[in-house]
Structure formats: C-alpha cells, structure tokens
C-alpha cells in the first residue's frame, strides 16, 4: 500500500485532466467559491423580495440556487454522455442576466409561473445546443469577442458598486468602504505579481482573506444571519409548484437564447485564455445543452436559471488553473452550502467592498480577453464597425436610462436591462449584413482554393 502511494502521480493544477494534490487544489477551489457565492445567492434574494415570500421560503430559494449551481457545474466539468456538458473548466451559478425578467415575472405572477417558464426556457437552450453546429457561422471570433468585451465592460459598474459598499448600503460610497476595497485590490496585485507558486495562483483568495480581516477589524462584518441559520435543510422537489403562462414563456425563451450567446463568449474565453486554444464544436454544443438540462432540473428543485460565471472565467484566465478536479472540489463545496445554511451564511458575511476590490481586476481580464478575440481578425473598416456599433448600442442604451420608455414592458425587460443582449444581436446582424471588403473576399477565395 505504501508503495502504491509513493508511485501515485499527481498532476499540476494547470493541467486540464488528472488529480492534483488536494492541499494545493483546496485553496484554489475555495477561491472560486468565494468569488461566486454572493453573486449566486443575490438573484434568489431579489426574487424572494419582489415575490413577497416569507423568510423560510427565502432561505429555500437561496439554498436551491446553490444546489443547482453545484449540479450545473459538475455537469459542465464532467459531461453526461457525449452532448450534455462542455468538459471545460467553468463555474455555473444563478445568472444576473435574468434578474430583470425575474423581477418582472415575480412581481406580476407567482414563483410557480417563474419556474414553469424556466422549464420551457431550458428546453429552448437544449434546442439551441443541438443546432449549434449549423449556427457556428453566426459566431466567429469577431462576434464572440464583441460579446466577451461587452460582458467585461458591463461588469465594471457592478465591481465599482461593490467597492463603494453595495447598492442600498447605508454607508454606500463612504471613504471606509473605498479604503478597504483599494487595500484588497493592492493585496491581490501584490500576490499576483510579486509572489510565486500557490500564493500567486490564489491571489484573489489571498486578497479576500486579508481584506476580510481588515474589514473585521474595522467592525464591518456581521454574523447575525449565521447565528439564525439552521445547520441542515433540504427542500422538497416542486416545493413552489409549476405553472405555464404564454407571455412569461416567450420572455424566458428570448433570454435563454441570448444567454446561450453569452455562454459561447464565456466558453470561448475560457478555452482561449485558460487552455490557449479555441473551444471545439462539441464543447460548445455540450455546454449549451448542459446548461439547458441544469435549468430544467432547477425548475423542479426551485433553483434559478444558471449561466457561466464571468468572474470565475476571469480567475481561470488570470491564474491558468484549469484542472477540472480543482473546480470539481469547488462544485462540491457549493453543493454542501446548498444543504448547510450556516455554511452559506458564513460566506455571505464577506463585505461588498472586499468582494469588489478582489474582483475588479478579474473583470478587467475578461474585457482584455474580448479584445484578444476581436483582434484575431484583421481590424478592417467593416470589422471595426461591427464591434464599435454593437458595443456603442449595447452600452449606450443601458447608460441612457429611460431611452426605451415608450416601448412595451417585455421589450424594455429584454433589451433595456442588459448591454450584452443588444450588443450580441447587433454583432450577429451586422456581421451578416455588412458586405465583406474586396481584399477580404480575395483572401477568403484564395483560402478556399487552397483547401480545395
């Protein structure tokens, strides 16, 4: 037995497959959990507020969001069959992109209607995944790069809002919040650029740990929710029921199609930034289908729509830690949080300013990954128009609040709440409509002749 232990070979955490040393993998896994935990539970908290549910049902929504996030992550890391899961190093969680729609549906209908629409939306995502190969011409690097670039830009306000203390905080924008946020950012940068080994790879976690200690010393951490949370809780399947309403279903289907475009961007940036290669058609197809299947399961368990978490994609790109077992440990921890409310509550005590200071550099990496994808193609006048106009429309509509004021509510919900939606649709349409310049046409013809 000792002989077998001595001969057991561990892989580096920068290898996609294989088992790394547990003590090396654990802190890197925790780093992913800490980066996603607040964002994962926030949609559930918001939906519970607008739906008017009591505190016990709010806890169930939060725990279910964590539970389905863990299941969805494992499904992506370790695919089920040939077409259900990408096999790429990604973390899944309850998506912020759906929050405007969830607020709209939760305020007008009940939770059963939300989960009924989610079930159909998940089926829609599976259909998109099945036909992905026929749709690949719609998503060249120019388009996916524009989507990733817009995702990064749209996350900046979120990071800055966290750094200032979090929206709605009594001390929002206070010098104290900014001091802790900037100290956390400095610590992240120090560990990433001035250390090596595990400290360098876990720079985000190190920043959060030291930032948390600083915030704790300044009296910014509250353990009230931890004390009131129970130790173990399992929600029964179909606890909230399920209803089907046409308007809700149509809105959710649109969001799932758009979310699939965002997923393409995240899968592309994960493969490109973490694995130094392009994502394969099988990985793209399996990733979209896997997310659809996870959403279907979530509809029965009370978990909200999931998506790839861009901040975790950024961590993969920044650290080059792509080992699936590392992220698998993170998924198990997320699952544990779904069964142990006290554990999840402890993670949510991290002050917003600490989270913002630790993740702003991650969001910057996402933006730069988008630029790298865009520049894979020559920046001709046509291509710069595709990128520039798409980003201008997406970011511009969001920043010009109320510019869609006379549109129907469903249109304002779908197009007026997410810069990524407009940018994605614009990039796809412009790339198909704008004529290819003569030099590009000659080059494409020459390449086809060579291949022939």
UniProtKB/TrEMBL annotation:
<keyword id="KW-0812">Transmembrane</keyword>
<dbReference type="GO" id="GO:0042907">
    <property type="term" value="F:xanthine transmembrane transporter activity"/>
</dbReference>
<feature type="transmembrane region" description="Helical">
    <location>
        <begin position="177"/>
        <end position="195"/>
    </location>
</feature>
<feature type="transmembrane region" description="Helical">
    <location>
        <begin position="60"/>
        <end position="80"/>
    </location>
</feature>
<dbReference type="GO" id="GO:0005886">
    <property type="term" value="C:plasma membrane"/>
</dbReference>
<feature type="transmembrane region" description="Helical">
    <location>
        <begin position="413"/>
        <end position="434"/>
    </location>
</feature>
<feature type="transmembrane region" description="Helical">
    <location>
        <begin position="112"/>
        <end position="132"/>
    </location>
</feature>
<feature type="transmembrane region" description="Helical">
    <location>
        <begin position="138"/>
        <end position="156"/>
    </location>
</feature>
<feature type="transmembrane region" description="Helical">
    <location>
        <begin position="321"/>
        <end position="340"/>
    </location>
</feature>
<feature type="transmembrane region" description="Helical">
    <location>
        <begin position="288"/>
        <end position="309"/>
    </location>
</feature>
<dbReference type="InterPro" id="IPR006043">
    <property type="entry name" value="NCS2"/>
</dbReference>
<dbReference type="Pfam" id="PF00860">
    <property type="entry name" value="Xan_ur_permease"/>
</dbReference>
<feature type="transmembrane region" description="Helical">
    <location>
        <begin position="86"/>
        <end position="105"/>
    </location>
</feature>
<feature type="transmembrane region" description="Helical">
    <location>
        <begin position="29"/>
        <end position="53"/>
    </location>
</feature>
<keyword id="KW-0813">Transport</keyword>
<feature type="transmembrane region" description="Helical">
    <location>
        <begin position="386"/>
        <end position="407"/>
    </location>
</feature>
<keyword id="KW-1133">Transmembrane helix</keyword>
<keyword id="KW-0472">Membrane</keyword>
<dbReference type="InterPro" id="IPR006042">
    <property type="entry name" value="Xan_ur_permease"/>
</dbReference>
<feature type="transmembrane region" description="Helical">
    <location>
        <begin position="244"/>
        <end position="268"/>
    </location>
</feature>
<feature type="transmembrane region" description="Helical">
    <location>
        <begin position="201"/>
        <end position="223"/>
    </location>
</feature>
<protein>
    <submittedName>
        <fullName>Uracil-xanthine permease</fullName>
    </submittedName>
</protein>
<comment type="similarity">
    <text>Belongs to the nucleobase:cation symporter-2 (NCS2) (TC 2.A.40) family.</text>
</comment>
<feature type="transmembrane region" description="Helical">
    <location>
        <begin position="346"/>
        <end position="374"/>
    </location>
</feature>
């Amino acid at each position: 037995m000792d002989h077998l232990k001595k001969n057991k070979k561990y892989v580096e955490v920068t290898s996609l497959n294989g088992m790394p040393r547990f003590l090396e993998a654990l802190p890197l896994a925790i780093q992913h959990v800490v980066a996603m935990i607040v964002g994962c539970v926030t949609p559930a908290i918001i939906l519970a507020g607008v739906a008017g549910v009591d505190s016990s049902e709010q806890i169930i929504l939060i725990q279910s969001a964590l539970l389905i996030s863990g299941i969805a992550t494992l499904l992506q890391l370790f695919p089920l069959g040939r077409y259900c899961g990408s096999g790429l190093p990604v973390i899944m969680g309850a998506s912020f992109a759906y929050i405007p729609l969830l607020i709209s549906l939760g305020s007008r209908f009940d939770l059963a209607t939300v989960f009924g629409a989610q079930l159909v939306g998940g089926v829609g995502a599976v259909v998109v995944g099945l036909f992905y190969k026929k749709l690949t011409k719609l998503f060249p690097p120019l388009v996916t790069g524009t989507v990733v670039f817009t995702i990064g830009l749209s996350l900046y306000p979120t990071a800055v809002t966290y750094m200032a203390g979090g929206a709605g905080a009594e001390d929002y924008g206070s010098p104290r919040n900014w001091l802790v946020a900037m100290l956390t950012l400095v610590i992240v940068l120090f560990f990433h650029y001035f250390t090596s080994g595990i400290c360098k790879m876990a720079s985000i976690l190190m920043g959060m740990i030291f930032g948390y200690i600083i915030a704790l010393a300044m009296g910014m951490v509250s353990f009230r929710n931890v004390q009131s949370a129970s130790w173990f809780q399992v929600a029964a399947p179909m606890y909230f029921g399920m209803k089907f309403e046409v308007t809700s279903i149509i809105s959710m289907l649109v969001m799932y199609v758009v979310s699939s475009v965002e997923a393409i961007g995240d899968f592309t940036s994960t493969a490109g930034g973490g694995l130094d290669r392009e994502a394969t058609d099988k990985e793209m197809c399996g990733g979209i289908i896997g997310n659809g299947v996870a959403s279907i399961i979530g509809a029965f368990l009370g978990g909200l729509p999931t998506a790839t978490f861009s901040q975790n994609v950024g961590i993969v790109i920044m650290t080059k830690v792509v080992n699936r077992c590392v992220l698998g440990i993170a998924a198990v921890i997320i699952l544990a949080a779904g069964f142990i409310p006290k554990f999840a509550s402890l993670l949510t005590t991290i002050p917003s300013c600490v989270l913002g200071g630790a993740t702003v550099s991650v969001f910057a990496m996402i933006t730069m990954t988008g630029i790298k994808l865009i520049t894979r193609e020559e920046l001709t006048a046509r291509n710069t128009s595709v990128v520039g106009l798409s980003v201008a429309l997406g970011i511009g509509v969001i920043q010009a609040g109320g510019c869609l004021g006379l549109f129907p509510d469903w249109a304002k919900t779908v197009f007026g709440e997410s810069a990524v939606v407009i940018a994605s649709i614009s990039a796809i349409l412009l790339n198909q409509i704008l004529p290819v310049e003569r030099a590009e046409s000659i080059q494409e013809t020459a390449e086809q002749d060579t291949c022939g």
